[in-house]
Amino acid sequence: MSQSPAFVLNVLETPEDPEGQEPSPYDESEVHDSFHQLIQEQSRWVAQEGLELQQRQPETGALGASGSDHENLPGPEGAPVYSMATLRILASMPSRTIGRSRGAIISQYYSRTMKLRRRAGRPQLRDMGRSARPSLRLYDLELDSAVLEEEEKRGLLVKELQGLTAAQRDHMLRGMPLSLAEKRCLREESRPLRGKQRAQRRHGLLSCCDQLRDSCVLASHNLGLALLSGLQALMPWRYALKRIGGRFGSSVLSYFLFLKTLLAFNALLLLPLLAFIVGVQAAFPPAPGGPVPAFTGLELLTGGGHFTHSVMYYGYYSNATLNQPCASPPNGSQCPPEAGSLPYNMPLAYLFTLGAALFITCITLVYSMSRSFGESYRVGSASGVHAITVFCSWDYKVTQRWATRLQHDNIRTQLKELLAEGQLRQRPQSACGRLRRAAVLGIVWLLCLGTTLGCTLAVYTFSERMIESPVSAEREAVLLLLPLVVCLLNLGAPYLFRILATLERHDSPVLEVYVAICRNLILKMVTLGILCYHWLGRRVGTLKDQCWENFVGQELYRLMVMDFIFTLLDTLLGELVWRLFSEKQLKRKGKPEFDIAGNVLELIYGQTLTWLGVLFSPLLPAMQIVKLLLLFYIKKASLMANCQAPRRPWKASHMSTVFVSLLCFPSFLGAAVFLCYAIWQVKPSSICGPFRTLDTMYEAGKVWVRHLEKAGPRVSWLPWVHRYLVEDTFPIYLVSALLLAVIYLNIQVVKGQRKVICLLKEQISNEGEDKIFLINKLQRVYEKKERSRAGRTEEAVTPPALFTDWDAQ
Amino acid sequence: MGNKQAVFTHEQLEAYQDCTFFTRKEIMRLFYRYQDLAPQLVPLDYTSCPDVKVPYELIGSMPELKDNPFRQRIAQVFSEDGDGHMTLDNFLDMFSVMSEMAPRDLKAYYAFKIYDFNNDDYICAWDLEQTVTKLTRGELSAEEVSLICEKVLDEADGDHDGRLSLEDFQNMILRAPDFLSTFHIRI
C-alpha cells in the first residue's frame, strides 16, 4: 500500500487539529499521512454529525454497548477496552455504515438505481484506488470526491427514481430496506406531474421502444395481478394451506404444494385435449358401431361396458376429416370442404394435439426443475450446518402452541445431534465396524432388490395367466384382478422395505429418506415396465381383431381407480387405525408421523399412469384432476385428525427439488418413451380409432406431409424440414453433441467459481486480520497520546519503539 | 372491491400497493386485522392519516406471533421507535417483508436486525447465545450453548473478528435455500 488511496481529499501538510495543538505522532512520517488524514476527516465529520456512541450509556468502553430498552442487556464481557477516540473512528468505518444508517442505504440504492438506469456494469476498476475493498467499490460510497449529505443523497436518489419506469421504480422501492412511510415519501417525490412526465418522455429520456416495452410490462403486470386474484378466488386453499403450515410446518406443507403443482400440470395437459380432440369429436359424434351396453355401476371401476363407446377412449374417435361430405383417402386427393365450414382432420389433430400438449408439459417440467434446482443448489457450499440450523430452522409459519413446542424440541434435538456428530467424527471408526456396516447394507439391498424381483415375477405370471384365460363380457370384474395384485404389491412391499431398513443404521436421517425413496421408486417403475411390456408386447398380439387401444386405456383407468382406493385404504389403516390402536392398546401418546416421501411417491406414480394413458384415453387427465382434488381433502382431514409432524430435520427445498426431478426423470421420461414407442412402432388396430387404416400412428403425419408436397411450392419448406431434420438422424447427433459440449462447459465454469469462492474467502479473512491489526495499532497510538498528554515532561521525544514497531511490520 | 371502501383514498391504496408486496384486497384484509387488534384505538377512516400506534402487547398477542420466540424482536425491529408499538405502516411493512414475495436480500437484512439483540449492527457471541436460548427455550446447558455459538462463528465469520457482520450473514443465508420458506409468515 505505497500509493495514497483515492479517498484522500487534499493532503495537508500541517492539518488543523480541532482537538488542540498536541503534536501528532504522524507528523514525521510521510508513509502514514493518509491514515492521519482519514482519521482527521472522520473525526471532524463525526463531531459535526453527532455521535451515536455518545448517546449511549457510557459502558466501560466495551464494543457494542447497550441499545434497546425492553430487556436488560448486559454487554458482552471480555471485549477489549478501547478509548473513546478509537470507538468514534470505529463507529464511522464504512463497513459499519454500509446497509445500516439511512444515509448509507439511500446512497447504496442511489448507485443501484443509477446503474439500472444507465445499464452500466461494475464501475471501472482503474478509477478506484487499489486499496479500496471490492465491497466498497461496488457500493460506491464516499469514494467520490464530494462527501454528500444525507439530504443531497436522497435528492439524487429521487431524481434517479424519476428516470425509471413505473414498474422498475416499484420493484426498486419494494426491495429497499426502508420503512414504509419513507418509501411512500420517496414514491411521492419521484412521481412527476402528468404534464411534466409527458414533456420528459417527449424529450426522449426513454426511447420509443423502451416506452412500448415498459407499457407492455405494466399492462402484463396488472393483468398478472388480476389473474392471480382470480386464481386465488378459484382455488380457495389459501386458508387450508395456512392451517396445515401453521400446525405441521413447511415439510408437510411441501406435500400439499406438490399436489397443487400436479393439479396445474394436469390442467395444462387437459385444456388442449379438451379443446381440440374431445370437444370436436363430441360435437361430431360418429355413427354407433353396434348396440351400446346399458350403464351398470361396475363401469366406474372397470372403465368398460357403457364407457367403451364414449369420448373417453381412443376407439371412439373417427379417422376421417370431419366437416367433409366424403372420406379422405390416405393418399388420394382431397375432397372439397363444405361451404362455410373448416375441414378438421381428426387423425392429424389427435396426433398433433397430443404431441403439443406433452411437449408443453415437458418444457414446463424441465423449467420448474431447473428453477427449483437453481434455488436449492449452491456452488461451494461448505457445511454450515450449525449456522443454518440456528438461523434458518425456525419456521415462522407455525402458529399453534403445541406445534411450536414441537419445533422447540426438534431444534433442540437437532442441535444436540449436531454436537454429538461433531464429537463422533473426531473419533474414527474401526475398520471392523465399517466392514460390518457395509455387509449389513449390502444384505439389506440384496433383500430389497430380491423382493422387487419377486413382485415383478408375480405380476408377470399373473398377466400371462390373464392372457391365457380370456374374459367374456359378462365377467368383466375379473379384469380387476391384475390391478388389484399390482396395487397390493405396491402397498405391501414398502412396508417390508421399512422393516428391513430398521436393520441398517445410516449416518444422516436424510440419507435414510433418500434410500427409502430409491427402493420404492425402483419397485414401482419396474412393475410399470412389466405392465407396459404386457400391453404393448403381448396384448397387441392377442387382441388382433379387437380394439387393443381401448383395452389398454381401460387397463390404465382400472389401475388409477384401484390406486386411489388403495391410497384411501392406506390412509385409513396407516393413520387412523394406527392412531387408535396405539392410543388404546399400546397406550402411547405419540400420533403416527405423516410419511411425506411415501405419499409423494404415490402422487408421482399416479401422475405416471396418467401420462402413460393419455394417448389411449384423452379424458384421463380429467380423472386425475378429480382424484387429486379428492385426495387433497381426504389427506388434509386425516392429517389434522391423526398425524403429527415429522421429528427429523427436513430440508423442504431440497426435497421439493428431488420430487420435481423424480417427476421429470423416471416418471415423465418413461411415459414419453412408452408413448413414442406406441406411436412409432406399434401397428394401430384396424377396426377403431383415428389411425385404423395406417401402419403406425406416426404415418398420419407422413401422409399429411406428402399431401403438402403435392400442394405446391408455397408450403414446400415444411416437407423439406420434415425430410432433412426429422427423418434424417444426423441433426440429432449434432444437437446431442452440442448439448454435451454445453454441459461440459457449464461444469468447468462451476469448478472455476468454486476456486474463486475459496480465494475470496481467504481474502476476506486476511482483510479481517488487517483490520484487527490496524485497530490495535490505532488503540496503542491513542494510548500513547494519552500518556504523553498526561506525563508530557517525561515523554519529550517520540519513543523510537513506535517507529521500530511500524517499520518492522 | 374497487373504490367502494372508504378507509383509504385511492392514492393511499395505490401507494401501499406499489410499496409493498400486497394487492389491494390483501391490504384491506390486513387493515381489518390491524383494526381488530384495537377497535377503540384504530379509526375506520385513514384518509386523514391519523397517528395511531397499537401497543406491543396487542401485536404480540396476534395468533401469528403469539408463540414465536422472536416476536418481541420482530415488533421492535419493525416499529418506528424500536419500542414495539406499531403504526399501520409498520404493520404492513412487517407482513410485507415476511410475505413469500419478498426477495432474499430484504428478508436477510431484517432477519439480521432481528437476531441482533443489542442493536450494534453485528451479531456477536452474546446475540448468538440469546438466539439459541430462545430457540431451545432454555433447555440446553450453558456449555452446549457456548459450544454451538463457537461453531456458528467458526462457520459463518468470514473476516474472523469474532462476530457476524451483515455480509457474513447474507453469505450464510445464500447457502441456506430453506431460509425463504421458513422466514415467512402467512397472513
Automatic annotation (TrEMBL), chain A:
Q: Which residues cross the membrane?
A: 223-241, 262-284, 348-368, 438-460, 480-501, 513-536, 657-680, 730-747
Residues spanning the signal sequence = none
Task: Respond yes or no to whether keyword Membrane is given for this record.
Answer: yes
Compartment(s) of residence: Membrane
Describe the location of the TMC domain by residue ranges. Answer: 547-653
Q: Where is this region: Disordered?
A: 1-32
Q: Acidic residues compositional bias: what residue ranges? A: 14-28
Has UniProt tagged this entry with the keyword Hydrolase? no
Q: Which Pfam families does UniProt cross-reference here?
A: TMC
Keywords in alphabetical order, please.
Membrane, Transmembrane, Transmembrane helix
What name has this protein been given in UniProt? Answer: Transmembrane channel-like protein
Protein's organism = Odocoileus virginianus (White-tailed deer)
UniProtKB/TrEMBL annotation, chain B:
Source organism of the structure = Odocoileus virginianus
Among SUPFAM superfamilies, the record links this protein to:
EF-hand
Keyword Hydrolase belongs to the record: no
Q: Which CDD domains match?
A: EFh
Which positions fall inside the EF-hand domain? 144-179
Bilayer-crossing residues are: none
Q: Report the InterPro entries cross-referenced here.
A: CIBP, EF-hand-dom_pair, EF_Hand_1_Ca_BS, EF_hand_dom
**By what name is this protein known?**
Calcium and integrin-binding family member 3
Q: Which gene encodes it?
A: CIB3
Keywords from UniProt, A to Z, are: Calcium, Integrin, Magnesium, Metal-binding, Repeat
In terms of PROSITE patterns, this protein maps to: EF_HAND_1 (PS00018), EF_HAND_2 (PS50222)
GO biological process terms, alphabetically, are: integrin-mediated signaling pathway
One short Pfam name that applies is EF-hand_7
